[in-house]
Amino acid sequence: MSLSRRTFLSAGIGAAALMASASCSSSTTPPATGGGVADAGVELPTYIRFEGVTADLPGTDDGIPDTFFSYPANPQAATDGPPADGSAIQGSVPVNKAVPPSMDRNSYWQALNERIGSELRLTITPGADYPQRFATAVAGDGLGDVFTIDMSFAQLPQFLAAQCQDLTEFLSGDAISDYPFLANLPTDSWRGTVYNGAIYGLPISRGVQSSGLLYTRDDLFEARGVDPQPATIDDFVQTCRDLTDTRANTWALTNVPMATLQQMYGLPNTWGVDDAGAFSHAIEADGYKAALELGRSLVADELVHPDFADATGADAKGWFGAGSSAIHQDTYSAMGSMYDVGSTAGEGYLVGLMLTPGEDGQPAPFWLGNPNNTISAIAKGDEARVRMLLEVLNFLAAPIGTAEHLFRKYGLEGVHYDFDGNNDPVLTELGETEASGGTFPIEYLIDGPRPNYYPGRPQVAQDIYDHMQQVIPTGVRNPTVGLYSATQGTVGGRLNTTLNDATNAILLGREPVSSWDDVVADWRSAGGDSIRSEYEEGYAAANG
Amino acid sequence: MTATSARPAQRRRPIDAPGAPSRAVKGVVLILLCAAVILPFVGIVSTSLADRAQVNASGGFVLFPTSVSLDSYRTIFAGGVVSRAMAVSVGVTVVGTAISLAVSTLLAYALSRQGSFGQRPMLMLVLFSLLFSPGLIPNYLVVKELGLLNSYWALILPTALSAFNVIVLRAFFMGIPAELTDSARIDGAGHLTIFARIVLPLSKAVLAVIGLFYAVGYWNAFFNALIYLNDSGMWPLQLVLRTYVINNTEMSATDLGSGVENLPPQPSIQMAILVVTIVPILIVYPFLQRHFAKGVLTGAVKG
Description:
Chain B: Keywords: Cell membrane, Membrane, Transmembrane, Transmembrane helix, Transport. By secondary structure, chain A is α/β, with parallel strands linked by helices.
């Protein structure tokens, strides 16, 4: 390491300059966008469906993804040659699994570089630490060429305008046809990439897979002779009673499924908007108190696992897998892990998906999850470099059934995976480690549309498709998707924590349900009303 | 007389020999205290060795495993990531502790000698850093401008000197009788000789303790690596293992299509991680035990 006096001095000056700029930062930050200005004035990329692969059950226009019972046979290359120009590409991504071996010791990563045509130097950070890493790297200009955005970053629009490439001219409207796999991403997902009236990011699309529902242990339901599809809210409570046997240490529910209970009472999906463009939060509706009352009675009647209040998601899933509880609220994406947790439960282990009953005896309107896990962005650069990076991301967005996808998710045949009798790729131990079990963190730079595909479990794919067919048409969107609220960005996290604490206090019987009015009043004065008006402003701008 | 009759009774039961009931109570309390300390550790080791059926049956925390499975350890050591990270951690801890001890003792010695050049301003600077520490981003920018990003030095140099440890060392050095150093000076010894041949040999206790403080600090540190290292192949053990502890709680969201079925249960993996992170530093303690009490007291009663 060489360290000259000049370097040392400049480091000190750098630190001093930063401290100075912290006190007068308003002079250097780009203009704020005011409230929430979303896709006002910008033409979203045209959706061009990739027709190269035929699904076993094709997806629908209202969002049901393509369904596959086995991996499509004979996947063909859909691109010609490496997309990159040979120069190194720096990137920053979070990882939500164990960190994969570094590039020098990872044959999957090396093969990926070969296919891309450049060295992909990724800084991989554990997901929980990514916000802190992201904030530091923003200040130190250390994110690289392409990076996952931390959506909780305060003043996100300003950051995007200052440091990220405006991609509108490359992707808006028909321009996206230069990148066919990016054009294959649904329009809903692109809506979340628009800030400051321009396209500043690329979606990490999840479609409807991030929507929540109740999973049921159908084998346990059958053993007790209970119908896993209750028709009314009262039936649901009775179902919970039938499945609970506290002396045998079994409780119906892993936790209080507040999102599902709100759906039962027909509440808006977090935020609702009326015809006049006025926003209201679900917590302000009377139905929320009914949902709280139902949740409180479920806890009071000992129908919920007694350790639910301080349990992690993994704990709750563990109880579901072990049979301590038979109903668990999670997203469609979690289906794979619902089977993972029951891997020692034997042959009969069976997971079902409940249709949430509504107040009127019909299935409740279904809350659609955020169509994006997050977004990624490209650092400002000259046109040739930006186009090259978009080519790489296009390559990395190849959908299931292409040779590019097969490699990206599973690596090299015979090394990282082998095909089983059902033509499903099964990862080897090396593939599990090097390719992160099929989720190498490049999936947080870009990913293709997420299909319904469960290797080795065609019935599961069918069950999910059937469930989606019934609930997706009743889907309720969260109207704030694609809108930005500066107040939500700065104090939203704290407000949510306060609301969660107050909800738990009521569920656990420490506070009466009637105390909720005060909680809402506090929430409104502490920032809720500002968030509302910013969303309303953004909504009005986007919808004329 | 009452006074004379009481004396033989006092002789029969001296103050340091309590009766049987008292001893029994103390024994029970001590056993309970020991159990409170030891049982969780036994539970950690046992859970790390348990298989999924046992973990499920016992609600996530196994005290006495009926069968032993090393799958959790195999999982975290698979791929060599953990082995490599352990080497990094050991290297950073050894080199870092050596550097820290060297700079801390030198500074503390200088600050402990009355009349050293710039002694008071220097002492003020050290104390100032105890009261006010720079924020994360200024630190990052300094490390970046020094060209230390993505280098092991970024894990060592920013934390090489702890003001608290310097103050403790200085207090100890000031307690060394001036007669010893004065006689050495009369014999013609310079500061370096006095420092190396008189002060340091007399300070083994405090050096052992301060060395341990530094070593534990380097061993447990993960945040510097998270911020300063871009290459995950350079990560120390704590950061690699942190990804298991944190991210295993959220594995499901990204697990579509993975096809993994026989992962060891989460509690076993997490407990195996605890064992791997605790044991190496635990091994150091017995070697420093005899210095420990004296060294800790030094900082407690002098300042």
